[in-house]
Design goal:
By secondary structure, the chain is α+β, with helices and mostly antiparallel strands. It is built from 13 helices and 14 strands. It is 33% helix and 18% strand. The strands form three sheets. The protein has an eight-stranded mixed beta sheet. A four-stranded antiparallel beta sheet has the order 6-11-8-9, with no helix packed on it. Strands 13-14 form a two-stranded antiparallel sheet. The longest helix is centred in the middle third of the chain and has 26 residues. The structure holds 2-oxoglutaric acid (AKG) and fe (ii) ion.
Length: 362
């Protein structure tokens, strides 16, 4: 697949990410841990190499293609619905991408971690035939490996945040239900007869809802809005390099020390626009019942960060991880839209002062 795709263009604004070597992180290499910490606190995005899941990722893309080839009517039987559940199928155009209610252009299949690990038992729901057929062979192994990688990174953050050993791990366990999921995303090509504008949002500007995201893409289109800038920059896809980022939940737990950065997906740049774009994410999210608040009582470092924040109250959300997630999912759904207030009600940590200009720009 990759060999037939046009290269990522050289003439578009691109933001470099630090490259973290997963093998060195596993060995406890101090320099690599410092690099991971720098990436997670300054931008909240980094490349991860030597993660060992490339073959699983290719198989997940096959699973995604098999699923998306099913008739729309069949896929719609497994639709995620309008009540704030994410698991299942999402059709293109089911979500807004901004406050004007412009529609998204991607379809995706979300498979719950709990369902993948308990298969053939359905913890949350069942899936389209082509998805279910790949569960044991493809999805469950990918989910297990992704969970292990995100847990390893989380243990580094736990330590650097000065939290007692196992604090973050206890909020992200396999025996409690969560909104953790694997997502395979397809964006159709921009057609020559009706070319999309290069900044048409396929997925609207957002911060991720959970703790850690482990992303794999082949074509450009992902953009970040780096702190201290006032424009969007592409993230260049690099073969064998996953893109990792911090989400709202981990940012809140850390009192804002770890950064959940704004990002979006637009039309792939240049000649890449004419191609189907596939991406795959594993999202680690906290246990459903975890209260979403800074872990200040467990760490003086987190407590100091909260005390120094312009508005310490933002770190006391008053809701559980599940409630945070359901609110965001539900208010993105175009069927639930009453006006710009619905989009605003879907926002997470984007409202923080640094990120506000980007939200206004789009
Ligand atoms: O497709 C991508 O490159 C990013 C997807 C993304 O940001 C998401 O699904 O949250
Ligand atoms: Fe995202």
């Amino acid at each position: 697949m990759a060999s037939t795709l046009p290269p990522f263009p050289e003439d578009v604004p691109t933001h470099p990410l630090l490259v973290v070597d997963y093998e060195l992180i596993q060995k406890g290499d101090q320099q690599e841990i410092d690099k991971l910490w720098e990436a997670a606190t300054k931008l909240g995005f980094w490349y991860l190499k030597n993660h060992g899941v490339d073959d699983d990722v290719n198989e997940m893309f096959e699973m995604g293609a098999e699923t998306m080839r099913l008739p729309l009517e069949e896929k719609m039987k497994y639709e995620q619905g309008d009540d704030g559940m994410s698991f299942g199928y999402k059709a293109a155009g089911a979500n807004a991408v901004d406050e004007t209610g412009q529609l998204d252009t991607v379809e995706f299949i979300n498979v719950s971690k709990d369902d993948a690990l308990a298969y053939p038992q359905a913890v949350h729901r069942t899936y389209p035939s082509a998805t279910a057929a790949r569960m044991e062979r493809t999805i469950t192994p990918f989910v297990r490996k992704s969970v292990a990688i995100n847990n390893t990174l989380m243990a580094v953050f736990n330590d650097r945040l000065g939290l007692p050993a196992g604090t973050l791990a206890a909020l992200h366990t396999d025996d409690a239900q969560s909104c953790s999921e694997a997502r395979c995303i397809k964006k159709p090509p921009s057609r020559a007869q009706e070319p999309e504008s290069p900044d048409r949002q396929a997925i609207g500007a957002h911060t991720d809802f959970g703790s850690l995201s482990f992303l794999h893409n082949r074509l450009g289109g992902l953009q970040v809005y780096p702190p201290g800038t006032n424009q969007w920059y592409y993230v260049r896809p690099i073969p064998g390099h996953a893109i990792c980022n911090v989400g709202d939940a981990l940012s809140l737990f850390s009192g804002g020390l770890l950064r959940s950065n704004l990002h979006r997906v637009v039309t792939p740049p240049g000649a890449q626009a004419a191609h189907e774009r596939w991406s795959l994410v594993f999202f680690t999210r906290p246990n459903n019942s975890a209260p979403l608040r800074a872990l200040a009582a467990a760490s003086p470092r987190v407590a100091a960060a909260v005390a120094a924040a312009p508005d310490p109250a933002t770190f006391e959300t008053g809701v559980t991880a599940r409630e945070w997630f359901a609110r965001r999912i539900k208010n993105q759904r175009i069927k639930n839209r009453t006006g710009p207030e619905t989009w605003r009600a879907s926002r997470g940590t984007e409202h923080s002062e640094q990120q506000a200009p980007a939200v206004k720009a789009h």
